[in-house]
Amino acid sequence: MNIRVFRTPSDAGIYAASMLERVITSSERPVIGLATGETVIPVYDALVNFVRCGLNVSHVTTINLDEYVGLAPDHPQSYHQFMDEHLFSRIGIRMQSTHLPNGVAPDLAAECERYNEVIRNHPIDMQVLGIGVNGHIGFNEPSHALITGTHVVNLTPETIAMNARFFSRKEDVPRQAITMGIQSILQAKQIMLLAFGEHKADIIYRALKDGIRTDVPASILQLHKDVTVILDRQSAARLGL
Ligand code: F6R
């Protein structure tokens, strides 16, 4: 694993965006796997600046990790809206080239199968990942077993509590999500895992240095041959670098 530590999330975001730029400019049909959440905002801000300075993204396909069950794409807290606000609308990407699970599909099992097919048809060149304080990647939550393909997951009380900061009423926080599975994540040619802040220091240590365990799903990334971990000083604090 290549571990890079930056002074600020915004410096780290520029580094991550330049890694994405390399993938985007070195392939005719690049496929980027995307995440949502606070961590990836500096990455998307930097990428938007690159596009404003001439980076062409018209040939890029994106595949997001997850979406809440029960939130329609136009719901303000949906991941569809997050992506639109922080990236898609700002870089003018063709919406047909962007993919997210549909959290209001009438048949969720069929939706998971459809999403697996999307991933099969578009092998991911670079997967962007954040990490939950409980070690989740996508919404692959700590469990006795990890699931390979796209699935519906019951979010843990810890994740629901963390997500509550984005909702005005606690009872509106979704209890379930559709997430890409662990195998689909591991099949990406390259992976970048980002984490910022003191509150991520413990889980970054456990994910990178403490063996591979299903109750720390991100630790499985130790098996992938091309992972770059992008941290700030606070999240790297326990690594003893
Ligand atoms: C969201 C996702 C999650 C987040 C993680 C960190 O698409 O896949 O795994 O990356 O929960 O969230 P933040 O960045 O808000 O701390």
From TrEMBL:
GO terms assigned for molecular function: glucosamine-6-phosphate deaminase activity; identical protein binding
Enzyme class: hydrolase
Listed EC numbers: 3.5.99.6
Keywords, comma-separated and alphabetical: Carbohydrate metabolism, Hydrolase
Catalytic activity line of the entry: alpha-D-glucosamine 6-phosphate + H2O = beta-D-fructose 6-phosphate + NH4(+)
A single GO BP: N-acetylglucosamine catabolic process
Matches recorded under InterPro entries: Glc/Gal-6P_isomerase, Glucosamine6P_isomerase, NagB/RpiA_transferase-like
Pathway: Amino-sugar metabolism; N-acetylneuraminate degradation; D-fructose 6-phosphate from N-acetylneuraminate: step 5/5
Domain Glucosamine/galactosamine-6-phosphate isomerase: 16-226
Active site: 66 (proton acceptor), 134 (for ring-opening step), 136 (proton acceptor), 141 (for ring-opening step)
Single GO cellular component term: cytoplasm
Summary of the function given for this chain in its UniProt record: Catalyzes the reversible isomerization-deamination of glucosamine 6-phosphate (GlcN6P) to form fructose 6-phosphate (Fru6P) and ammonium ion.
NCBIfam families with a match to the protein in the record: nagB
Family label: Belongs to the glucosamine/galactosamine-6-phosphate isomerase family. NagB subfamily.
Name this polypeptide is given: Glucosamine-6-phosphate deaminase
Organism of origin: Alicyclobacillus hesperidum
